[in-house]
Amino acid sequence: MKLKLSTIRNLIIILIFGVLSGGIGYRLGYQGVTAGIKEFRPDFKIENRVPQNPPAADFTLFWEVWNRVSTQYVDKTKIDPQKMVWGAISGMVAGIGDPYTVFLPPKENKESKESLNGSFEGIGAQLGVKEKRIVVVAPISGAPAELAGLKAGDWITKVDGQETFNWSLPETVSKIRGPKGTKVTLTIIRGDSNKPLEFEIVRDTITIKSVEWKTVDATGSASSTGNVIYLRLSRFGDDTNKDWDNAVDEIKKIEKGKGLVLDLRNNPGGYLQSAVYIASEFLKAGQLVVKQDNNNGTSEEYKVTRVGKLLDIPVVILINEGSASASEILAGAIHDYKRAKLVGEKSFGKGSVQEAQDLPNGAGLHVTISKWLLPLGDWINGKGLTPDVKIELDEAQPDKDLQLIEGIKLLNI
């Protein structure tokens, strides 16, 4: 199926640090929803309407709680009707039990878009939800989070001393994000250890360059005479396809490039359209990249529709537990056709697609609309991709990239 940019641009495979959006299937109102609601009528105007065919839901309890909080809470200055509505919507969406279907007020929705544009202020870490806990999916290379010592797989248990238990992803991000120069303290649990670690991180402006490349020698070190291309893809954002094309055009000019290592480590995902576009660089026309099973019972197949420029070069792909979503589609599709071996650690395991929808007043909705399957039919949600060669980085040798070195060896050039 050929991708339509007007539609696919809003299909985001999200593992993005928390800047998820959400929404409401119908608007809160009291008239006509159910009997008995008028006795708990709020003391301000609700400027929205009930849908034509409202679900069988009794809002009596909702308005009773609203009325009691509004009239009985001790500090009336903290009662903000708009925030209460947003909170009610967030709770309604959270009731589905899907951490990736969420509601965000205007501020958080704006931050979501900024992150995919590649520039925002914060600590520079992609967050996700795993086992109902907040986890660091991937620290962004060179950002304050990575420089402070955060790693993929770290569980965030506290933010500025506040327990994160039962926090939503948007709530967590809202508390971690902040203006450049301000500080935030994160308490994390790493691996199987029960010992908490604390990091004080100074926020900064985060600019993400989605594509970088260089030639390297057998040790993985940058070398103008190296015959291996190291190509790093950090996200699938607004400018990724353009940056990718520019990089590939430059790479094709290098006659000594005999093999390519594609680094998808700590790549948390992004636009589905971009993952399919880049996979098409390595696969033959007509080959299936990903199958999407939709919420209405239909399926869509996204296939290669262009002639790739890297069809003949040997490829190895690096992955780790920070490789998620769109990066798993890319790595999994290329691997299914035996175009590349996977080296590193098991990937995150996210196999669902969210549609980003803008709502009135700047709010937004990210709702899970489908799940995706790899060309051979695998759904890796909760499982991840298993590398052909498993190698963990040696913390005692931080300057030695053992995964990259192994990838270069597998190229046999």
From TrEMBL:
The protein, known as: PDZ domain-containing protein
Gene Ontology terms for molecular function: endopeptidase activity; serine-type peptidase activity
Family per similarity comment: Belongs to the peptidase S41A family.
Pfam families: CtpB_N-like, PDZ_6, Peptidase_S41
Species annotation: Candidatus Gottesmanbacteria bacterium RIFCSPHIGHO2_01_FULL_42_12
Transmembrane segments: 12-30
Biological processes annotated in GO: proteolysis; signal transduction
Superkingdom field: Bacteria
